[in-house]
Amino acid sequence: MLTLKLINEETERVIRGLGKKHFRDAAQAIAAVQDTDKRRRAAQQQLDNILATSKKKAAEIGGLMKQGLREQAEAIKTEVAQLKEQAKEQEAVMAEAEQQLRDQLCQIPNIPNDDVPEGVGAEDNVVVKTGGPEPHLNSDALPHWELAKKYNLIDFEMGVKVTGAGFPFYIGKMARLQRALEAFFLDEARKAGYLEVQPPYVVNQASGYGTGQLPDKEGQMYHADLDDLYLIPTAEVPVTNIFRDVILNEQDLPIKRCAYSACFRREAGSYGKDVRGLNRLHQFDKVEIVRIDTPEHSYESLKEMLDHVEGLLIKLELPYRILRLCGGDMSFTSAICYDFEVWSAAQKRWLEVSSTSNFESYQANRLKCRYRRSADKKIELCHTLNGSALALPRIVAALMENNQTPEGIHIPAALQPYCGFEYLDDKNF
């Protein structure tokens, strides 16, 4: 969440930034935060004064008793008791104001970096780079869901039977390809200096709050009511929360972590070609990269992360483009976000396969993720970053469609050592 220091010292910049994200009633929301903060600080001042007075008067009691002035001492005891009641009242006012302040701040999104373009939706995103080979398919080329049926690679109907729509079964060589992609992405992350962790797939409310999924995205997360735990929508949540309530040393930054996990999202509920097959699922596999860094270096970290994701797509021989998202198409928590899309030749459309973001101090403020500066030992908020490197379903869709041949679906050279075959076909054993 935004810091009070930023809101109070750069009010106009915050309001302009929220306007770029099309946050309604930004000025009123910021004014409400400032009013609540003033009420909290006034209560704190009152409480401090009451406690100081109470302490001073309490110190007089012993002396009066020694002088035999019992009545005066008893009178002061009564005053101290009254002051204690007043202190409790101010503590209650403060607690109420602090809770209201947290609630208000949680409803305000991060403000975008100056490099974020103006815009309302996906049509206003800016393509900053394209690359990769252009696929040339025959006129009878099939979309991936037809290829999956032809070669018995993915059983969508069985997933519906066992669980529901959006939970496919991967069969034979396709199951092996899933494992191959996971291993390939993790190995590439390790080569780039990321320490691999294997996180839990469920998290508590504090973790969902820390990275901004709660209270913003409750409806998109699967919730285990009995234990009040949430299935993770991305490994970003448990991995970033490793550093919740932690003070790091500047010399240890940037911290780099990667993780494979299954991801669970309730949001996939619409119909049509845009969500057919692997285009959108309730459960899918993904490798995530996470960085914790200093404010001065975080944008260099972001560049390195973008280069890493691009390098994966180059090795997979996929046509891709990189987009800088406009203010209206960004997530609630990000300060800047780049999407990677791959070209799906049979569907003739771009498929998003990665979002790579710098959240600046927004997540860190919620997480209380801080670092100690080497020069002056001052404690400051970290910057947090994360990116998909990569999500499997749409990568698999593009690999299948772009590489279909009469012999089967050709596997890129970089993946062949991981999966042990050159073609996806009906020879599944």
Which percent bin holds the helix content?
40-55%
The largest beta-sheet arranges its strands as: 1-11-12-13-16-10-9-4
- In angstroms, what is the radius of gyration? 28 Å
Could you give the distance between the termini?
51 Å
Write the layout of secondary structure elements.
Blueprint: H1 4-9, H2 11-20, H3 26-66, H4 70-106, E1 126-131, H5 144-150, E2 154-155, H6 156-162, E3 169-170, H7 173-191, E4 195-196, E5 202-203, H8 205-211, E6 223-224, E7 229-231, H9 236-240, E8 246-249, E9 255-264, E10 283-293, H10 298-315, E11 320-324, E12 336-344, E13 349-360, H11 362-367, E14 369-372, E15 379-381, E16 383-391, H12 392-402, E17 404-405, E18 408-410, H13 416-419, E19 423-424
Helix pairs in contact: 3-4
Description:
The protein has 429 residues and is an alpha+beta fold. It is built from 13 helices and 19 strands. The strands form five sheets. The chain has an eight-stranded mixed β-sheet. A three-stranded antiparallel β-sheet has the order 5-7-6. The chain has a three-stranded mixed β-sheet with strand order 8-14-15. α3 runs antiparallel to α4. The chain is elongated, with a radius of gyration of 28 Å. The two termini are 51 Å apart. The model has no long low-confidence stretch (mean pLDDT 95).
